[in-house]
């Protein structure tokens, strides 16, 4: 259907976005690559010359590197699993007839509007504080010793906070998908006497696969970059240092821009591995 | 490229200069603690006196640090005054990033700044930042609980006494912990405390060839003692407690002793916030018989980044905010206990101020800390609870995270020390010391 | 979906859904409640829920300390500005991807999304130096540009999935009638895509509003939005739950209210092509 004319017009129209993003990606990327081969210490006068691959080998051999990769993947995978599973359940629940559906939906999506810094502050201080936190009061009310969330359960704490923020997003997309499900098909299966579990497994879940893919894709992009939640709560202590947090420490706390930049290149590689992995699943599902 | 930058900077400077000829506005980055917030309330008086408007950028300590460091090392020029500490000042001064404050007015009386503070905020004999308030650390303890335990706090106790007293005061059933100390990760939090404490155990950060010393006995002794005492008598979850958490515990009556910043004395004795205001005593930070006490030295100070176009106005502001008359203004409005402490000699010669219960002990603590000679054995660095080298903040944050993990029982003290040793040497190597 | 349900079933659904909804919303509710307490009541044990002396003093103190309206204005300008700019750039791109797809369209789309995976802090110094050079430091214009670029991939993708659902025949018909490409976009395509564009706009305002790294690190006094406002209330000396709650409530209230009022529009288009 596309004529030669519309093809070239299309190219022109796509150009601004591509050029802008290319610039946004290339300028920092080139600069990161440039710095990553330099000994660049702002507090020692800045650029101290080329060092070859020293920053790269130093970053990888640091004792924090592999744990940070593991932490990153743990965080991303856990939050994805929690939000998708709870999101599906919540979406199924919200799809059923009830009074005040609109208001319930408002309540459920609210966490999505809260800025990450604020939600981390709220959770850390008002809920997870072992002395004045609401959860500590709850634990004590049942005669249990309050949990030291930030030290004894540091990763679960961060996973809870991040999942709370992203659950609404997953729920909304999954809910829209469920609502688009063909009612007749469902009713037919109900008539056939298919038990609810079977109905869910063979009709609803396959129908949701596309929506789940989308949720996974979008959330992964944001979860790889989680920062404020860690900065505010544990500051990277107790095994919560993700790769992006490790880079933050190298760049801003150690003031070693060269080393941090090498870390940045590794993060890009990790992101691309994840992206390729996603492409394989998504590519199948997104047409 | 640099020429273009310079040209652009010049052009920007010109525009700024043209823009502010009428009413000058200075931008100040500062930390969100009580004394600074109070100062913001008095800014109108400064503007009325000088016609200079002030814009505040108030940030939490960690955010402030990353923000001002980025700006000054890139010569960003976003701020005309930065609030920095004793750690940053000598490093930045040495880099030529700060405007020397050696020409302050006679009326300001720079010689009145406490020598310990002036020394820590100078590089090569030149003052680069004016202290807004200064602090050391000392013991704050509950006189009533001490009495109940049948003990008497000496003016200058030892760690052994502190540990015994802590055990005696601890009363788990009534939610009273004998001693509350910082265990939170971060070089300015638990890192500062354990470093100051380690000085009294004969430990130090680096040997004379800049090698890490975590594989040596004094560090093992320090951490073993600290963890042992805190497990016996400290609050649950002390591995995440920093200044704030301990302050709140002490104010709620849940601590027998608390060793922390001297500025906290005015918070714990303020009946408005503290339930134990009437029962607080003070003593010097403990020692271990090795000739060094475990108290630190710190100041929050105001400095002017080199290259600002508003140097004169910025200096005016610094002279106002750190002056004797500012102290008097606060004293007149809010009482002597609430003035910014620890910066000026004259404050400690003022009989009104010396009536404040913690004034003398604060001064004694400040005077007993010596950044040039903080460790038992010779060390190559300056600083009590830090080493004034650019790499320290990054290294110490990592190290203190290992320590906190050990406090929380996630690894042994030996493991934490071994990791600290490796990562410190690695970072020092990367920085070219070794 | 018309399914007959007994009243009893509906009541059970309602009860469960409300319980879950309130549980999820509770942290926000608790923050709002705490903001009206005194500091003493905020950390009272056992906690007080509704029966305390409601006070506005925390809001007064926060407002006195920091000029809320200025931060709010900056947040609004930055969030809306970057979204509008992003939409303008993204509509043509999404259009051509949806209606004149090439072999590489999907690769370009995925590549665009992958640019979002770069860790921001890794490029802080380069970007900071660039901003100084361009004189964009502490300017709203600079933040509008950065946030536009950060969210552009999401905008393009959302619009693309939405445009793709518009039947091609309508465009063909318009072309037969002699509509130019420009008119085709303005008069035919855009009106049909309004719901999708609306929800794209809403989602991006939320994302831009909550972005806390660049907005904090590239501003000082003039352009600082609410993310910087909240950074002056986290970990002060002592625990001030009530003031922290008041500041938090002030930071999230505008976007929360906007989100609630427009949730229908937001939800309608927030499918990312997940529904076929």
TrEMBL record, chain A:
The coiled-coil regions, if any, are: none
- Occurrences of domain ABC transmembrane type-1 (ranges): 69-278
Q: Name one GO biological process term.
A: transmembrane transport
Protein topology in the membrane: Multi-pass membrane protein
Membrane-spanning ranges: 12-37, 65-94, 106-123, 158-178, 211-238, 258-279
Q: Which GO terms describe its cellular component?
A: plasma membrane
Q: Which CDD domains match?
A: TM_PBP2 (cd06261)
UniProt keyword terms in alphabetical order: Cell membrane, Membrane, Transmembrane, Transmembrane helix, Transport
> Where is it predominantly found?
membrane
Task: Give the InterPro entries listed for this entry.
Answer: ABC_transporter_permease, MetI-like, MetI-like_sf
Q: Where in the cell does this protein reside?
A: Cell membrane
Stated family: Belongs to the binding-protein-dependent transport system permease family.
> This chain belongs to which protein, by name?
Trehalose transport system permease protein SugA
Q: Which gene encodes it?
A: sugA_1
TrEMBL record, chain B:
Q: Where is the signal peptide?
A: 1-23
**Record InterPro entries:** Bact_solute-bd_prot1, SBP
What keywords appear on the UniProt entry? Signal
Q: Which family does it belong to?
A: Belongs to the bacterial solute-binding protein 1 family.
A Pfam family this chain is assigned to: SBP_bac_1
Q: Where in the cell is it found?
A: Periplasm
Return the Gene3D superfamilies for the record: Periplasmic binding protein-like II
Q: Which domain of life is it from?
A: Bacteria
* Any one of the GO CC terms: periplasmic space
Q: Where are the transmembrane segments?
A: none
State what protein this is by name: Erythritol/L-threitol-binding protein
Automatic annotation (TrEMBL), chain C:
What's one GO BP annotation on this UniProt entry?
Answer: transmembrane transport
**Sorted UniProt keywords:** Cell membrane, Membrane, Transmembrane, Transmembrane helix, Transport
Q: How does it sit in the membrane?
A: Multi-pass membrane protein
Q: Which GO terms describe its cellular component?
A: plasma membrane
Q: What is this protein called?
A: Inner membrane ABC transporter permease protein YcjP
Start and end residues of each ABC transmembrane type-1 domain? 72-262
Transmembrane helix listed as a keyword: yes
Gene for this chain? ycjP_1
Annotated Gene3D superfamilies: MetI-like
Q: Where this protein primarily resides, as one coarse class?
A: membrane
Q: What protein family is recorded?
A: Belongs to the binding-protein-dependent transport system permease family.
The membrane spanning regions, by residue number, are: 12-33, 76-96, 108-131, 143-163, 184-209, 240-261
The protein's location, in the record's own words, is:
Cell membrane
Q: Which InterPro entries match?
A: BP-dep_ABC_trans_perm, MetI-like, MetI-like_sf
